[in-house]
Amino acid sequence: MDHIKNxxxxxxxxxxxxxxxxxxxxxxxxxxxxxxxxxxxxxxxQVGHRTVWLLNGAKKHPWSTARDILSSQNIVSAFNLxxxxxxxxxxxxxxxxxxxxxxxxHPDISSKVGTISINLCSDAAPDWGxxxxxxxxxxxLPFEPNSGYFFRRTAQxxxxxxxxxxxxxxxxxxxxxxxxTPRWRV
Length: 186
Description:
Shape: globular
CATH architecture: Sandwich
Number of helices: 4
Number of strands: 13
CATH superfamily: q2cbj1_9rhob like domain
Radius of gyration: 15 Å
Low-confidence stretches: none
CATH topology: Jelly Rolls
Distance between the termini: 26 Å
Mean pLDDT: 84
CATH class: Mainly Beta
Largest sheet: 9 strands, antiparallel
């Protein structure tokens, strides 16, 4: 648990076009490889070109460990400290974006405090990633192994994802909601 908390605390903070943070080496290398090698065996929810897997794995499974770590109050506290926010409840999930998936420019829904995202890939994918939309220009964060980003939700935190053209994209998404049992769309 301390590894990802430390990665959040050591994140690189950017202020333009709006505040966001990047993280590297989110998980210890061995554990990260276990996640990549372990099957996700839950029933998925299909949402357009995106498959969302809620992290409900069996005990003593790498995905259960990831869920427990990322939903802990220690991670929420590290996020709050870095982003100068208060409170929240983390609900980790895995997003599997198929070819054709695209996320248009938007702010997160108001029930969120913010979002943490960790890329799950064995190789860099320089054409995939998050676009931080804003003025004077958009910033592209490429999809790199065991890295990611996080940001607090504000009216200015507009972001998008380029259309996935080949292969697929998998990420461990950790939305942090204001309420313990949020009403949210998948």
